[in-house]
Amino acid sequence: MPTAAPPVDLGVHYQPAGLSDRFALGVTRFLRLFADTFFAKRYGHRAVVLETVAAVPGMVGATLNHLKCLRRMQDDRGWIRTLMDEAENERMHLMTFIEVCKPTAFERFMVIAAQWVFYLFFFGLYLIAPKTAHRLVGYFEEEAVISYTHYLAEIDAGRSANVPAPAIALRYWDLPADATLRDVVLVVRADEAHHRDVNHGFANDLAGQPQGQIAPCPPHVELQPTWKTAA
Ligand SMILES: [Fe+2]
Ligand SMILES: [Fe+2]
């Protein structure tokens, strides 16, 4: 039996409370429209390309919080590790979906172009408005939960083949040997729900509001480094 993915509340939506929240929601809706138009129902391709973007904010947030804590000589309350874990988790999503779906040459070009633009945009945004940056990620993750729910529906309807889970996914989420793509999408969606709530929680914290409920994260196995060779 595959490991049961933690339950996901699909109905979570943070109501924008001010101009910065509305800006974050507006950017998210615009990018969603762009992704819907470009990828339509090609969920595997959508996952590969968007996970290359999703893995950026955590590392930017971790870097800038790290530098801030060094400058101010203060504790980070666990934010840096949380954000680094998010970045790694999103990269593992990418390493998983790249085994399921190979991007086209044009998509690979898009990934390179998008990384330049998005990294610089998000770095600048986090520097001047970290609350807006976390709210933006919270909204991105709300959309990720919706997209992976659509992907599940495609698999259940037989329109996307429910292929065996890639080996890296079996190791990272400790899934049983007979796990399939459907099991993988379930744990990935639970990861996204966790990031959604963590980032809305960080934005709330920066606004001086209560953090709110945080969806549980599926267990992740720490992968051992393979760059170390025996002497
Ligand atoms: Fe992801
Ligand atoms: Fe995510």
Automatic annotation (TrEMBL):
EC number: 1.10.3.11
Catalytic EC class: oxidoreductase
Domain of life: Bacteria
Transmembrane segments: 109-129
Pfam family name, one: AOX
Keywords: Electron transport, Iron, Membrane, Metal-binding, Oxidoreductase, Respiratory chain, Transmembrane, Transmembrane helix, Transport
Location, primary (coarse class): membrane
Protein name per the record: Ubiquinol oxidase
Organism: Caulobacter ginsengisoli
